[in-house]
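Our collaborator T.R. sent over the components below with a one-line note: 'Predict the complex.' Nothing else. No constraints on interfaces, no templates requested, no preferences about which chain binds where. So this is a plain run: every listed entity goes in together, and whatever single assembly comes back becomes the starting point for the next discussion.
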Amino acid sequence: MNKESAVSEKAKQEGADRSKEPAFTMTAPSSVKRTRTPAKEKFLHENLGRGVVTVFGFAIIAITLLIGVFLIVRGTGTFTKYHHSVAEFLFSSDWAPNDTADEGGGQVGAAIYIVGSLLTCGLGLLIAAPFALGAAIFMTKIVKQAGDRIFRPAVEIFVGIPSVVYGWVGLTILVPFIRDVFHAPMGGYSVLAAGIVLAVMIFPTITTVAADAIASVPAVYEMGAYGLGSTRWQVIRHITVPAAKNGIFTGIILGLARAFGEALAVAMVIGKTRAFPKGILYPTNNLTAAIAADMGNSANGGEQNLALWSMALLLFLISMFFIFLIHFISAKGELKK
Amino acid sequence: MNEEMKRRIKSAKFFDRLMTGVFSGIGGFFLGLIIVLAGYIIIKGIMSYYPGIFAFDANGIGNQFFNTIYLVFLSLVISVPSGVLAGIYMAEYAGDNKLTKAIRISIESLSSLPSIVVGLFGYLVFILMTGMKWNLFAGALAVSILSLPSITTTTEDALRSLPKSYKEGSMGLGATHWTTITQVMLPACTSRIMTGVILAAGRGFGEAAALLYTAGQSTVINWSNWDLTSKTCPFNPFRPGETLALHIWVMRTEGSLNANSENIANFSAMVLVVMVLAFSLLARYLSKRQERKQTGAKA
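Returned assembly:
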C-alpha cells in the first residue's frame, strides 16, 4: 500500500516536472487556447473526486461512532436515569420493569436473558464447531476439486438462506421432533431447538473461514511431513490444523458473533419463557428475542424501554469484544511469524 | 523393534483410513443436509400453494413481495454509491495511518453488528427522532448500514486485485489519479463489484430483524393510487412496508388472524430460498465470466 502510493506520488511529481519543461510548451500549437486554468483542471480531475471519496471513507467511522454513541446514551439510561446497579442488571433474575414513561421503580435483572443467550450459543457452537472443522478439512484436503466445485458454492447458499427461514424450518420440523422424540415439556420449544438452529446457521461461517485458513497453510509444511513418511491423518493432525489454528479460531469467533446477534430464528423456537431452563429440553428466553418481542410495545424512555436498550448495548459490547478477540489472535499470529 | 515399527505403521494406516472415513462422513452429511434442507423448503412451499397466493391482498404475498424488491432497491440506491466511493478511498487514497486503521475497524464492527441492534438504531434515529411512522425508507437505510461494509470491502478488494499495469499505463499517459480510477480501474472491475452488490442484495431480501421496527409489520396499499405522497401509494417510500422475510415472522406471531398463515409462511420461505439461490447463481456466473475475461481463457 505504502509503496503503491509512493509510486503514484512519484508519477504525479514527474508529470508536474515535465509540464514545466519549455520543450513541451513550445511544441504545443499556439492556436489551442486553454479554457481552464491548470488549478481548476486539477480540482475537477483529481481533488474533487478525491475529496468526495475521502468524505465517504470517513463517513463509515462516523456511522459506527454514531451507532455506538446512541447505544451508550440510551443503554446507560437504566443505570443513570433509574439508578439500577450494573450488578443488578447482569446478575439478578428479577425482571419486572415499569412500563410507564419516567416512573421507574421496577426490577431490571436480565440474568435469564443473558444466560439464555450464553446457553443457546454455547450449545450451538458445541454442535457446529467439530462438524464445521471436519467439513473444512474434508473439502480442502480430501476432495480438493469437488470441494472447490461443489462444497464452496453449497456453503455460500447455506450462508445466504435468510435466518427467518431457518427459524421457520426449526419451528415446523425441529420443535415437533423434539416434542415427540424427547417428550420435552412445553411442546418442544427448548434450548436444544435453539442450539440446533444456531448450529446450522453458524456452521457455514466457521467452515468457510476454517477452510480458507487450512488452504493457506504453505504446502511445503505438509510435503515435509509426507516426505518423512506421515499418513494424511498425521499430517492433518500434527501439521495442517496446528498451522491453521489462528484462522480456525477466527472462524469460530465469527460464528459465535453471528449466533449472539441472531434474533428472529431463535425467538421462534426458544419458547420465550422467563425462567432459567432446568435442562436443554426446557424453554427459556434470550437477549435478542426479548428485544424483538418487547421493544415495540414499551413506552419510549420508560424503565422497560431503557432496560431493553441496555440489553442492546450489551449485545453491541459483546460483538465489539469478539472483534477485539479476533484482532488479538491475529496479532499473536503475526508475532510468531 | 521391527515388530514395534510394523505395529505402529499398521496403526497409523488404520487411523488414516478411519479418519478419512470420519471426514468423508461429515462431508457427506453436510452436503446431504443442504440438499435435504433446500429440498424440504422448496417442496413444502410448492405443496402449500393455493390459488390466490400471489394476489396483492391480505391472502396473498404479492404486496410483501413487491415491498421486498422495492426496499432492497432503495437500500441499494443508498449503499452502492456510498460503499463504492468508500471502497475507492480505502483502495486508492487511504494512507497507512491510524485513521485508515480506524476505518478498517469501523467496517469490521459494522459488519459484525447484530442486525437487531442496527434495527434499533434505525428505529431510534429514523423513526422516533424524525417523528415519522414506520416506513420503507427507514428500513432501506437500516439495510444499507448492514450492506455498506460488504460493498466497501468488495470494491476495495476488486480495485486492489487489478493488475498494476492498468494504473501505470493510464497515469503514464498523463491522466490524474482520479481520472485513472473512473476511466480505467472502475470499468475494469465492474463485474466484481456487481457480484458483491448482488450478494448484498440477496442478504437484503432475507433481512428481517433490522426491519422489525423500521419498515414496520403492516402493508396497506391501494394499487390504483398513484399519488406519490399518499400513504397507500405503492411507490411512496414513506409508507409502512412489510417484507417477505418479516411476513414469515408475522405469520407465526399473529398467524391466527389468517386461516392460511402456515401455507403463506411455507410459500414465502420457498420464494425467499429460490431468490437467494438465483442470486448466488447469478453472482457465481458473473464472477466466472469476469475470470474468463481477465485470464483470456476460452470456456
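Summary for T.R.: The mean pLDDT of chain B is 87.
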